Amino acid sequence: MRRQITLSVLIIILLALGESVTDASSHSQEDQLIKFMESRALKRLRNRPNKNGPGEDDQWADPGRFSHLATRSVSSPESTKEDDRITALPGQPRGVNFAQFAGYVTVDRKNGRELFYYFVESPYDASTKPLILWLNGGPGCSSLGFGAMKELGPFRVNPDGKTLSRNKHAWNNLANVIFLESPAGVGFSYSMNSSDYSDVGDQITAEDTYVFLLNWFNRFPEYKGRDFYIAGESYGGHYVPQIATIVTFINHLFDGDTPFNLRGIFQAARVPNEVEKAV
Fold first, then answer.
1. How far is CA 220 from the centre of its chain?
2. In whole angstroms, how far apart are CA 248 and each of 31, 116, 130, 256?
3. Strand, helix or coil for residue 215
4. Three-state SS annotation for 84-153
5. Is residue 153 within 8 Å of 122, Cβ to Cβ?
6. Do strands 176-180 and 227-233 pair parallel, antiparallel, or not at all (unpaired)?
7. Can you give the pTM of this predicted structure?
8. End-to-end Cα separation, the chain, in angstroms
């Protein structure tokens, strides 16, 4: 009898799941997202009591609070693309057939906060390849030291610590990749105001990255409107969707009249050899 009851319950659950899958397939992902955002479950989540007050203050549930970024002024390029061009890295091998750039982009002129980037174009038809922003996590992990030089970048540091070798599984074989040191205080990124190192958080990091991208596109205008992806690993699981939230909101606010043609996001716990080989 007990077995029959259990079987009946399982059948009911499977039928319910089947209806759910059928229903989901009949709607676009956007419809499903809107349906979820308007659901009572999300409203309960927003109003859930916590130790900080009567309701949970989740800024990402209401991207409208980032409206001030729509009027954030974009500075003229402090340097040009050619100023940032790397002729050759120390110890790099012969036959490097792709362009490299590195430099600073100001994200807060008042505090003197600047983010450092390393950008590599694809050696194969770079003008037709998508653009990827790569973010290591931590928080505090260098996208240059780890992402670029130990994971998905075009080079590997040789055991002698002085020379480089090519990484045949580099992501720039398929795309143009920006490695961003973020937030200020990570890697070569810095601020002239020491309080920026203690007051940093996810919201400031996301806003700074958004402003960085605006200024970066100003320096590299040929990438405006290019298929754009945001990717990262580890704590980048926070950074990636948070930046995407801001980009999507601003795009909607300006009816797509922005430099961003965001096509997707992806996130990895880490980048093991198996993933690199698959690329």
1. 18
2. 16, 24, 18, 9
3. helix
4. CECCCCCCCCCCCCCCEEEEEEEEECCCCEEEEEEEECCCCCHHHCCEEEEECCCCCCCHHHHHHHHHCC
5. no
6. unpaired
7. 0.76
8. 53
CATH of 65-278, one of 3.40.50.300, 3.90.180.10, 3.40.50.1820, 2.60.40.420: 3.40.50.1820
DSSP secondary structure letter of residue 172: G
Q: Where are the domains of the chain?
A: 2-46, 65-278
CA 13 to chain centre: 38
Instruction: Check residue 277 and give its pLDDT.
Output: 43
Answer whether residue 40 shows pLDDT above 60. Answer: no
Task: Return the H-helix or E-strand segment holding 15.
Answer: helix 2-25
- Residues 118, 170: Cα–Cα separation, whole Å: 14
Report CA-CA distances (Å) from 63 to 27, 121, 169, 226.
Answer: 24, 32, 37, 24
Query: pLDDT at position 31, please?
Result: 61
Residue 191, classed as helix, strand or coil, is strand
Buried b (16+ CB within 10 A) or exposed e, 93-126: eeebeebbbbbbbebbeeeebbbbbbbbbbeeeb
Decide if 161 contacts 205 (C-beta within 8 A): no
